[in-house]
Amino acid sequence: MTEPAKGLFIRTHGCQMNVYDSERMTDILRPLGYRAVDTPEAADLVILNTCHIREKATEKVFSELGVLKRLKDEAGGKMRIAVAGCVAQAEGEEIMRRQPAVDIVVGPQSYHRLPELIAQVSRQTGDRLATDFDVVDKFDALAIDREVDGPSAFLSIQEGCDKFCTFCVVPYTRGPEYARSAVEIIDEAKALVDRGVREIVLLGQNVNAWRGAAPDGGGEWELGALIARLSQLGGLERIRYTTSHPRDMTDDLIFAHRDVAKLAPYLHLPVQSGSDRILKAMNRGHDAKRYLTIIETARKHRPDLAVASDFIVGFPGETEADFEATLALVREVRFASAFAFKYSPRPGTPAASLPGAVPDAEKDERLQRLQAEIGRGQQAFNSATVGRVLRVIFGRPGRRPGQALGYSPYLQPVHVDDAASWIGRSADVEIRSATQSSLSGEIRAHAELRT
Ligand code: 5AD
Ligand code: SF4
Predict the structure, then answer these.
(1) Which one of 140, 231, 248, 382 has the fewest beta carbons within 10 angstroms of its own beta carbon?
(2) Closest ligand to 158 CA?
């Protein structure tokens, strides 16, 4: 007997891992009759999938919960509210205390327990808070059908982090590093490709720390070998992976960029700072020179590689000279894109108690200068693709009627007019113009023009 349909609304904050988790929560709740709806008003269950990485993200959760409480009251209390993700993990009890309208709190390693938690809320028995770290159970529970939406899909292969960068909450909210087995990953990838997926994005907090037993008993694989195996899936066009740590960057993975045609020429490798003193205080485990050597080696084997990164400005004790070392690194690497953040002290992390806080105005000023430098690199990278023909996988409509939006192998957004029929497919596109943030072009379907 099927259950009557119930409305499910999930709002996702933060990283791609959370996007993946939200999709899987939808999959887990489908057998209980939950179907995605477009607004929280139409939902029987609203899940906030939260991010704890910076302060603003956490405060947003409490203000959103205030809004949801009003909706719940208007619905006569019928609506259920769940908080998932990293704020749930870090501040579960605080959330329950500060916002009694919250029915369920579920951490990132426990959302497979959602059906049980929902039942307990209905029966008004048992726990309403699940924040254990049983990541193995989680992935076992995920061995259910996935619904795919569009030509690109995330596949989580690794979770957690043992690196303990002094500014970061992830090791505390996502727990220790855990790698899914190669067999499980290959099976999930096959199922995705069978459903028409053309691009798979392998996800992990430290995705290049992934290691696993080879399925045929032939020793241990690292990420490069897994990617090579996945590339054999017919119908799959492109593979990406994100996010990587410089300490886990191996030659094998770099060689995969040379040898595996389906692996996108794109490397997101956060460096955070260009100053050795700050890198040390951050406990990154590498200096600027090591980072530059990795990039140089990778470009030797894959000259067109697009390199992206993350930066933090205003880490405690950061001087103008430290910051200029960051600018110098940005100029040297010529990033295709990069994210820059103002340092935000996170409770419980070692950096939160370091002296030398940088005033906010100074952080703002450094952020602007860094973003301007990053922007120049991005514009140069994008402009250099004008005139080339790039393979674009189209996932959704653009803003203009009839326009399609897709991504190039270098993860540049590409807009094409009069191309709505290409959505869900890939095509060769001649790039006609470039801005700092995106490209425009025209379909060139001729196979001989393919790059
Ligand atoms: N403050 C500012 N930015 C941070 N990040 C992680 N922790 C903090 C923090 N406390 C940034 C890093 C990381 C990205 C996901 O978020 O740059 O790579
Ligand atoms: Fe956080 Fe550092 Fe781990 Fe990345 S490597 S998740 S920044 S602790």
Answers:
(1) 140
(2) 2
